[in-house]
Amino acid sequence: MENKNLNTYIQSIVFENTKRNKWNAGKAMRWLNKHKLTPLKRVDKKKTKEGNMTFRYRINEPSIFKRFITKKTDKDISFIIGFLK
Q1: What is the extent of the structural domain holding 72?
Q2: Distance in angstroms (rounded) separating the CA atoms of residues 14 and 58
Q3: 39 part of a folded domain
């Protein structure tokens, strides 16, 4: 079986403020700094259908990727993973 290098990278990270995990922009930035991730621009804030606030930080430009998948953790953090073109 051939082993293929998929060349995947984190494109964005989304933190969702829920009753279980109280994320805010400051706490999310501290998490990013702790994990040595630097956002390209300021936080993008949006509300979900449920009324929860989300904080999305772009780590890499989306234009370098051909497709994306999302992986969600149990701590209300979602990783948007991009596959290089």
Answers
A1: 8-84
A2: 9
A3: yes
DSSP code at position 38:
-
Q: Count how many domains the chain has.
A: 1
Q: How far apart are the first and last CA of the chain?
A: 23
- pTM value surpassing 0.70: yes
Query: Which residues are paired to 70 by β-bridges?
Result: 80
> b/e per residue, 30-55, with b = 16+ CB within 10 A?
ebbeeeeeebeeebeeeeeeeeeebb
Q: Please indicate, yes or no, if residue 3 is contained in any of the structural domains.
A: no
Q: Is 1 inside any structural domain? A: no
Residue 2 belongs to some domain of the structure:
no
The pLDDT of residue 1 is above 50? no
pLDDT in tens, 40-80: 988 999 998 989 999 999 999 999 999 999 999 988 999 99
